[in-house]
Write a structure and sequence with these properties.
The complex is a heterodimer. By secondary structure, chain A is an alpha+beta fold. Chain A folds into 2 domains: 238 residues, DNA primase, PRIM domain, CATH 3.90.920.10; 115 residues, no CATH class. The N terminus of chain A is likely disordered. Chain B is mainly alpha-helical. Chain B is 56% helix and 3% strand. In chain B, strands 1-2-4-3 form a 4-stranded antiparallel beta sheet, with helices on one face. In chain B, a hairpin with a 2-residue loop joins strand 3 and strand 4. Chain B is elongated. Classes of the chains: A alpha+beta, B mainly alpha. At the A-B interface, helix 4, helix 6 and helix 7 of A face helix 8, helix 9 and strand 3 of B. Chain B: Belongs to the eukaryotic-type primase large subunit family. Chain B: GO terms for molecular function: 4 iron, 4 sulfur cluster binding; DNA binding; metal ion binding.
Chain lengths: 416, 481
C-alpha cells in the first residue's frame, strides 16, 4: 500500500490521537449535527444525550453504549480514552450509558440517520486494477458512478435533501441522510428503501447477479434512469479505463451473461483469435451482432441483457445490512483510518469525480501543518486550530451540513 | 347483565356520536373497527365472541408458523370463519347480518383488551388481525367493497390527469398494456407502503409513491395495521383504569394465554366417534396407534413401572374417560396396570376413590373434563412432552422415534419438528407429527382436517380413530398386544 511520505507518524499512537482529538476534531459541529438544533429544552433534548457512541481503543478493545450530555463532555472523555476510531449509533429511548440500569424493554433504538455503505471489496470480481483493501484513482471511478446514481435516486425519488457523503478513509464511502422523515424511519421502512435501491445481491459471487425484471418486462422506471446515468460513464470506466473485457477471463464473464447461446459462441470464436483486443472493440462487435439479429424478439432479449450488464458492472453495490437496522453503528466522520492515517472527510457529490483518495489529508500531514503554524504548546484550549490546516474546507463543508439539518428543524418547530 | 360498554368506551376520548352507533349497526361487512361497541353485552357474549374470534386468529398464526401458502391460509381461514364467525354480505338473505357484525366487532374489541398488554402480544395480534382483514377484503363482494372504501378516508390523493401526462412513460410501466387514461393512480407517502416500495411495484417521486389501482389494497392493509397499532397502544395506556373489575380480568388473562397454545377446547362426547366405548383390553393397542405423544409417554411409563404419579394418573385417567372408557373398564384397566404394584386392598383404598372421583361419582360429583393442551403446557408433571423436553432434544427425538416409527415417522422428519419446538410452537410440532403419522389420508398443512391444529389430546386421538374408521387408514399389520 502506498503511504505518503509525510506519514512517518504512527496514526495509532496515543500522542498523535490525543493531539488530533484536542486540537482538530470538530466535536462542536458533530454535536450540532447530531442534536439537530441548538440547545433544547429538557423535553426536547432527547437527541444527543440519548445517542450511542462506540469506541475502538488502541488495544482493539471495543466499548459500546457511551453517551454524553454535550460535546464538551464527549471531547473530555474521548481525549481520556484516545480511541483509534469511534462509531455513531442510534438515538435510544434511554441514555445508552444507563443501559445496565434500565429495563431492556425500555431500551430500544428509536431514531437514526439512514446510512449507506459502499465498499470497494464488493467490486473485486469486476475491477481489474486492484483487489482487496487496495484502492487507486482508477477504481475510484466505480465509487464515483455509485455516488452519482445513488445521490440522484435518493434526492429525486425519495425526496431527501440532507445527504452527507463521507470518505471512509480507505476504499469506500458512507452516506448519511439526516432528513426528519429519514431520521424517524422504522426498520421495515429502512429495509424497503435498501431493497428498492439494491440491484446486485452477493456481489462477490460470480455469475449473473442482476434480476430485476419480471419476464419480458421493461426495467422499472427508477432503474431505467439509473441505466441512463451509467451509460454515460460505462464507456469510459468499464470499456476504456478498467478494460473489463480485455482478457480471456474478462470476456468469458461477459459471454456467460448473454442469454443467446448462439450469439455468444459466435463472439467467442471471433474473440479467441485475439483475446487481448480492447473492451470497446468487443462491446461494439457485440452490438453489431445484436443489430444483425433477424428475430425482433431475440433482439429485445439481447437489448435487455445488455441493460442488465450495464447494471451489473456499474450499479452501486450496497452493503445492505448496515442500512436495514437502526441499531447498526457506522464510523463517525473525521475519524482517522488506522491503516492509512487518512481522515474520513466529507465529499461534495457534485465534485465526486475530482476527488482523489490519495490527496485526502493524513493525520501526519495535519500535525505537521499545526506545528508549522506556530504554537505547539500542549496546554490550554485550541479553538479553531483546524482553520490553519488543510482540514479547513472539509470542516466548513461539515459545518454547513450541520447547519442545514438544524435550520430545517427550527423551521419545522415554528410551523406548529 | 352488565355494562362492558363502560370499559370499552375508555378507548375513546369523546362519546359525542354514541347515538349514531348506539345499536352497533354497520353498513358494511368490512370493518376498520374505529367504532367500539357502545351497547350492553352479557359476560357470556363478552367471552364467547372473543373465544370464537380467537380460534380463527390462532389458526392464522399457526398457518404462518407452518409456512402455509397464502391460498392455503386463505382457505383455512375461510373455513374457520364459516364455523365460528360467519360474516355475510348485505345481499345475504334470511340471515341477521347485523347480529353477525356485532359479534365480529365485539370479539375484536374484547381481544384488543386482552392483547394490548405486551408488545409481543400486540405485534402478534396485529399480524393475525391484518391477515384476517386481508382474507375478508379479498373475498368481499366487489360492489360492497367499493362502497366501503368510499365511506372511509385513507389519506390518499388521486393522481390528476395533468400529473399522469407528466409521468406518462414511467407510470405506463406499472399497468402494462393498459390505457393510462382509464387507470387510476393514488399518491401516498412512500413510508405508508414499504412493502410495495421494496418490490418496486410503485413509481416513486419526491417521497411520494404512485400506486396503481390494483395495488390499492396494500394502502388499505397498511392503514388497517397502522390504526390498529395506534389503538392498541392507546388501549394499553388506558387499561390500568379498568383493573378494578374482577369479573373481566380473569377472562382477559385466559384469552391472552390462549394465543400461545391455540384455543383451549373442552373435548367432549367422543363416545360417538369410537362407537360403543372401549374396553380395558383395547387401551394398549389404541395407545400405539392413536394417542398423542403426551399420552403415549404416560401409557409407556405406566406399562413399564406399573405406576404413575398423581398428575400422571389424573391427566391420563381423564383422557381415557373422555376417550370412552367407562368407570368399570377404567377400574379394570388401572387395576391391571398396577399389577405387581399395590395389592388389591391397597388399590381399592387408595386409587379406586380417585378414579371414581374423576368420573364424578365421589366427593364433589363433578364430571371433570380432560385437560387440554394449554393446561398440559403449564403442568409441571406429566404435561406436554414437546415443551418439557424442549431443553433436551435428544430425549425428545428418541421418544418420538420409539413412539411413532411404527406409524411412519422417520429420522428425516425430526429436524422440522424440533425446529417448531424450538420456536415454542408445541402444538404445531404435535400437529405435524399427526400429519406425518397419518400421511396416507392427511396432507401436509391439513392438520386434523380443515387445517385445524391440535389443541386437545382427545381431539388428536378421536380424529386418528375416525380416520381409521373411514377406512382411509389401512390397519397396522401387527398388533403388539
Amino acid at each position: 500500500m502506498a503511504l505518503s511520505s509525510d506519514l512517518d507518524i504512527d496514526p495509532t499512537s496515543e500522542e498523535v490521537l490525543l493531539t488530533f482529538y484536542r486540537r482538530l476534531y470538530p466535536f462542536k459541529q458533530l454535536f450540532k449535527w447530531l442534536n439537530r438544533g441548538p440547545e433544547r429544552t429538557e423535553k426536547e433534548s432527547r437527541l444527543f444525550p440519548y445517542r450511542e457512541f462506540a469506541f475502538t481503543l488502541r488495544n482493539d478493545a471495543y466499548l459500546r453504549y457511551n453517551s454524553y450530555p454535550s460535546d464538551v463532555e464527549m471531547k473530555k472523555h474521548v481525549c481520556l480514552l484516545t480511541p483509534s476510531r469511534f462509531e455513531i449509533g442510534p438515538v435510544y429511548s434511554a441514555q445508552p450509558k444507563d443501559k445496565k440500569t434500565v429495563r431492556p424493554a425500555h431500551f430500544k433504538p428509536e431514531k437514526r440517520e439512514v446510512v449507506f455503505d459502499i465498499d470497494m471489496t464488493d467490486y473485486d470480481p469486476i475491477r481489474t486494477c486492484c483487489s482487496d483493501a487496495d484502492i487507486c484513482r482508477r477504481c475510484w471511478g466505480f465509487i464515483a458512478v455509485a455516488v452519482e446514481v445513488l445521490d440522484t435516486a435518493i434526492r429525486d425519488q425519495f425526496g431527501y435533501t440532507q445527504l452527507l457523503w463521507v470518505y471512509s478513509g480507505r476504499r469506500g464511502i458512507h452516506l448519511w441522510i439526516s432528513d426528519q422523515e429519514a431520521f424517524e424511519l422504522t426498520d421495515d421502512q429502512r429495509k424497503a428503501m435498501v431493497e428498492y435501491l439494491t440491484v446486485i445481491k452477493n456481489g462477490k459471487e460470480p455469475g449473473k447477479r442482476v434480476n430485476v425484471r419480471f419476464g419480458m418486462k421493461d426495467l422499472p422506471p427508477a432503474l431505467k434512469d439509473a441505466c441512463q446515468a451509467i451509460n454515460n460513464s460505462f464507456d469510459e470506466l468499464i470499456l476504456q479505463d478498467q478494460d473489463c473485457f480485455g482478457s480471456q477471463e474478462g470476456y468469458e464473464t461477459l459471454l456467460s451473461l448473454l442469454p443467446d447461446a448462439k450469439l455468444a459462441s459466435r463472439l467467442r470464436e471471433k474473440w479467441s483469435d485475439k483475446p487481448d483486443s480492447p473492451s470497446y472493440v468487443k462491446w461494439d462487435e457485440m452490438k453489431a451482432e445484436v443489430k444483425n439479429l433477424k428475430d425482433k424478439n431475440a433482439r429485445q432479449i439481447m437489448r435487455n441483457a445488455m441493460e442488465d450488464i450495464l447494471l451489473q458492472y456499474a450499479y452501486p453495490r450496497l452493503d445492505a445490512e448496515v442500512s436495514k437496522h437502526r441499531n447498526h453503528l457506522l464510523k463517525a466522520p473525521f475519524c482517522i483510518h488506522p491503516k492509512t492515517g487518512r481522515i474520513c472527510v466529507p465529499i461534495d457529490p457534485e465534485r465526486i469525480r475530482e476527488f482523489d483518495p490519495a490527496k485526502v489529508p493524513t493525520v501526519g500531514q495535519l500535525l505537521a501543518e499545526l506545528g508549522g503554524a506556530g504554537s505547539s504548546n500542549t496546554s490550554g484550549e485550541h479553538k479553531d486550530d483546524w482553520q490553519k490546516t488543510s482540514l479547513k474546507p472539509y470542516i466548513e463543508m461539515f459545518e454547513q451540513y450541520a447547519n442545514s439539518v438544524q435550520e430545517k428543524q427550527v423551521k419545522m418547530d415554528l410551523s406548529w | 347483565m352488565f355494562q362492558a360498554a363502560k370499559q370499552l368506551k375508555l378507548q375513546r376520548n369523546s362519546s359525542d356520536d354514541i347515538h349514531s352507533v348506539d345499536n352497533g349497526n354497520t353498513s358494511y361487512r368490512l370493518n376498520l373497527y374505529d367504532q367500539p361497541p357502545l351497547y350492553d353485552v352479557t359476560v357470556e357474549d363478552f367471552e364467547t365472541s372473543a373465544l370464537d374470534r380467537l380460534r380463527i386468529l390462532a389458526e392464522i398464526e399457526s398457518s404462518a408458523a407452518r409456512n402455509r401458502s397464502w391460498d392455503e391460509t386463505k382457505q383455512v381461514t375461510i373455513t374457520q370463519c364459516g364455523k365460528y364467525l360467519p360474516l355475510n354480505s348485505n345481499s345475504a338473505l334470511g340471515i341477521d347480518v347485523q347480529a353477525e357484525r356485532k359479534k365480529d366487532q365485539l370479539g375484536h374489541f374484547v381481544l384488543r383488551l386482552a392483547f394490548c398488554r405486551s408488545e409481543e402480544l400486540r405485534r402478534r395480534f396485529i399480524r393475525a388481525e391484518t391477515t384476517l382483514f386481508k382474507v375478508r377484503f379479498e373475498t368481499d363482494d366487489s360492489n360492497e367493497r367499493r362502497a366501503f372504501l368510499n365511506s372511509k378516508e385513507f389519506n390518499w390523493i388521486s393522481v390528476s390527469d395533468a400529473e399522469k401526462t407528466k409521468y406518462e412513460s414511467q407510470l405506463q410501466h406499472f399497468i402494462g398494456k393498459g390505457d393510462l387514461d382509464n387507470e387510476a393512480f393514488y399518491k401516498v407517502k412512500w413510508t405508508t407502503i414499504p412493502d410495495l416500495v421494496e418490490k418496486r411495484k410503485v413509481f416513486l417521486k419526491g417521497g411520494y409513491a404512485y400506486v396503481p389501482a390494483r395495488e390499492q389494497a396494500s394502502i388499505i392493509y397498511a392503514a388497517f395495521e397502522e390504526r390498529l397499532e395506534a389503538a392498541l397502544l392507546a388501549t394499553s395506556r388506558a387499561i390500568p383504569l379498568v383493573d378494578e373489575d374482577t369479573r373481566l380480568n380473569p377472562i382477559l388473562d385466559n384469552l391472552a394465554q390462549g394465543f400461545i397454545a391455540g384455543v383451549p377446547s373442552d373435548w367432549v362426547a367422543s363416545a360417538e366417534h369410537t362407537g360403543d366405548g372401549i374396553t380395558a383390553d383395547m387401551v394398549d393397542s389404541l395407545a400405539k396407534k392413536h394417542f398423542p405423544l403426551c399420552m403415549r409417554v404416560l401409557h409407556q411409563s405406566l406399562q413399564k413401572d406399573h405406576h404413575l404419579k398423581h398428575f400422571g394418573r389424573l391427566h391420563y385417567g381423564l383422557f381415557l374417560k373422555v376417550l370412552g372408557l367407562s368407570i368399570d373398564e377404567a377400574i379394570a384397566f388401572w387395576r391391571k396396570s398396577f399389577a405387581g404394584g399395590p395389592g388389591s386392598d391397597k388399590f381399592d383404598k387408595e386409587y379406586r376413590y380417585n378414579i371414581r372421583h374423576s368420573f364424578g361419582l365421589e366427593g364433589r360429583r363433578m364430571n371433570y373434563p380432560a385437560k387440554n393442551c394449554l393446561q398440559l403446557h403449564s403442568a409441571h408433571e406429566a404435561g406436554c412432552p414437546y415443551r418439557q423436553l424442549e431443553s433436551s432434544p435428544e430425549n425428545l427425538q428418541s421418544a418420538l422415534l420409539s413412539s411413532y416409527s411404527a406409524s411412519g415417522l422417520t429420522i428425516n422428519d425430526l429436524p422440522e419438528i424440533l425446529a417448531q419446538v424450538k420456536k415454542k410452537s408445541y402444538h404445531v410440532a404435535c400437529t405435524r407429527v399427526f400429519e406425518i403419522t397419518h400421511s396416507r389420508s392427511v396432507k401436509k398443512g391439513e392438520g386434523l382436517g380443515d387445517g385445524e391444529s391440535v389443541t386437545h389430546p382427545n381431539q388428536y386421538a378421536a380424529r386418528s380413530i375416525e380416520l381409521e374408521k373411514e377406512g382411509k387408514e389401512p390397519k397396522m399389520e401387527v398388533d403388539f398386544v
